[in-house]
Design goal:
3 domains, Uridine Diphospho-n-acetylenolpyruvylglucosamine Reductase, domain 2, Uridine Diphospho-n-acetylenolpyruvylglucosamine Reductase, domain 1, 4-stranded mixed beta sheet, Uridine Diphospho-n-acetylenolpyruvylglucosamine Reductase, domain 3, alpha+beta, 5-stranded antiparallel beta sheet, 301 residues
């Protein structure tokens, strides 16, 4: 353990040294955090960041739906936001506020109940709003940037920021601002269009049915593994290379959807990442296409 652990600021939340992170991820694999911090609320998190040694790295872990924690664990502090950051509240003007820890699907459902259309796609996005803001998450032709008004975040120094849609520099599965500056998103304001709740809920039901038929949502998976190359589909490339359903240690690409990496048994993070890298190399060799990881990989091998 590093000596900075002996000089931690006082908090109202929980500080857990050496906490295993696998149980916090959908893959259910990964080593420990040097320190896991579960803040009580936004003030607790801000005060902690202000007082923490600036040299200590800070990593945010959401619900772990799109994250692979390597077997060696994660240096520094891993922050995981809890219930205080999961508020969802409909507001005037077909707007809805969501805390960063709110599940995307929950936000979609609450928008539907409030008669707000345009956020239905969140019903098909695994994960939480913090992750959606970080990577411009989306599916079925819609993305976070299409409905975002502004986002709220803390920087590494614990300073509060209000960021417009334009400030975040969104492109396909990427925020230029989030890539350039360590941010911990705490919430966001979205805007849709007024509609009948029944009509919104019917569209969400279609998304749910489609997802259940085409994606291995009940497996230990991380969602889409690779970003789609320009003009192509990653799943088609993985399938054409012969990797659909092919075992690799305790890992494989799902027989149901060839772009979903799954822990089919007792996989290690090394199995899962090793399979992904093997597939990337094979697709490059066979088709000359570079597949880019969509799943975030963190920590030490």
């Amino acid at each position: 353990m590093s000596d900075w652990l002996d000089r931690l600021p006082a908090v109202r939340g929980r500080l857990l040294p050496g906490e295993l992170l696998g149980p916090f991820t959908w893959f259910r694999v990964g080593g420990p955090a040097e320190l896991l911090f579960l803040p009580q609320d936004e003030d607790d998190l801000a005060d902690f960041l202000k007082a923490l040694d600036p040299a200590v790295p800070v990593t945010v872990l959401g619900v772990g739906s799109n994250t692979l924690v390597r077997d060696g664990g994660v240096d520094g502090v891993v922050v995981r936001l809890g219930k205080a950051f999961a508020t969802v509240e409909a507001r005037e003007g077909a707007r809805i506020f969501a805390g960063a820890a709110a599940l995307d699907a929950t936000v979609a459902r609450e928008a539907g109940k409030a008669g707000i259309a345009g956020l239905e796609f969140f019903r098909g996005v695994p994960g939480s709003i913090g992750g959606a803001l970080t990577m411009n998450a989306g599916c079925y032709g819609a993305e976070t940037k299409d409905v975002l008004v502004e986002a709220y975040a803390l920087n590494r120094a614990g300073e509060r920021l209000t960021l417009s849609n334009a400030d975040l520099g969104y492109s396909y599965r990427r925020s230029a601002r989030a890539a350039a500056e360590p941010l911990i998103f705490t919430g966001a304001l979205f805007e849709g269009q007024p509609d009948e709740p029944g009509a919104v809920e019917a569209r969400m039901a279609e998304i749910t049915a489609r997802r259940e038929q085409t994606q291995p949502i009940r497996e230990k998976t991380g969602g889409s593994t690779f970003k789609n190359p320009e003009g192509q589909s990653s799943w088609k490339l993985v399938d054409a290379a012969g990797w659909r359903g092919k075992p690799y240690g305790g890992a494989m690409f799902s027989p149901l959807h060839a772009n979903f990496l799954i822990n089919s048994g007792e996989a290690t993070a090394a199995d899962l990442e090793g399979l992904g890298e093997a597939v990337r190399a094979d697709v490059k060799a066979k088709f000359g296409v570079d597949l880019e990881w969509e799943i975030k990989r963190i920590g030490r091998p």
